[in-house]
Design brief:
It is a single chain. With 303 residues, this protein is an alpha/beta fold. It folds into two domains: 4-86, Alpha-Beta Plaits; 97-300, 3-Layer(aba) Sandwich (Rossmann fold), CATH 3.40.50. The protein has nine helices and 16 strands. The strands form three sheets. Strands 11-12-10-9-13-14-16-15 form an eight-stranded mixed beta sheet, with helices on both faces. Strands 1, 2, 3, 4 and 5 form a five-stranded antiparallel beta sheet that branches. Helix 4 (136-150) packs parallel to helix 5 (167-175) and helix 8 (240-253) packs parallel to helix 9. Mean pLDDT is 87; it is low at 128-134.
Length: 303
Amino acid sequence: MPDSWKLRTAIISKPAAHAALLAHEEAADWPEDWVLTGMEVADDRPDEWTLELFLPAKPKAADTARLAALFASPPPAITAERIAAQDWLTLSQQGVDPIRAGRFHIRTPEHPPLRQPGVVDLAIPASQAFGTGQHATTAGCLTMLEAMRRRGIVVRNLADIGTGTGLLAFAALALWPRARATASDIDPVCAGVVADNAALNALALGSGPGATLMLVADGMADPLLAARGPYDLLIANILAGPLIALAPDFADAVAPGGQVLLAGLLETQEAEVRRAYRRVGFTLVRRMVRGDWAILWLRRRRI
């Protein structure tokens, strides 16, 4: 593949980084092959951040200005760097250490399985679709799913919206093995990724109990998503903006008394997300904060 490029900001404050990430989320018409990430400069410097914007071609002045526009004036200094031909996202995920989240052990295939009683071992290769479990929101979702299972929640029909690698759908089926799972993502790449990961973990694809049906869809905009509902459990680890916009659609798709697991939102966005779901009939069961991220377990009120 050809060389790609990276725009990197100078060191900024954590609040400035979060504000810029929120501005990016709300901005329209960003190219789909541009990827914006934010990170701490170092583990011992949690209040110092930088943003990196990955692009497939050499940035123009207008591209740099577009990144700068996410910040209040004056914006930080921005530098450009060429990246040698590589799939930078895959490389960024290779070699990550396995994680434990409750009974779940999530690893890349380079690491051996953890053969212990009661452990759910899932191998997820580095790929174009996010979802190795290393991210705080994904690990938090795994922990919350297990909390639901411990509370005796019964799931016969579930959906994972914005599934990425399929990890959360697979994890939910490990907890409720007779459930019927529907996984969807707006990115067509994810269809092949989910199929590959199902084969790697010897998991069934299909429409019946214990199997995952993969769809390519924007939110709930697929007739089959509606036809396979209502859902006892709906998982959405995406972003705050889409979560808010999808609240009415999720309310229509979830059975009365059913569960929704939401993630991908910063703690600073939690109140707005909770208001959107309260308006359509959901109540909070439990919340969790991992780093700067909130994970919400909500239940739809019974009619």
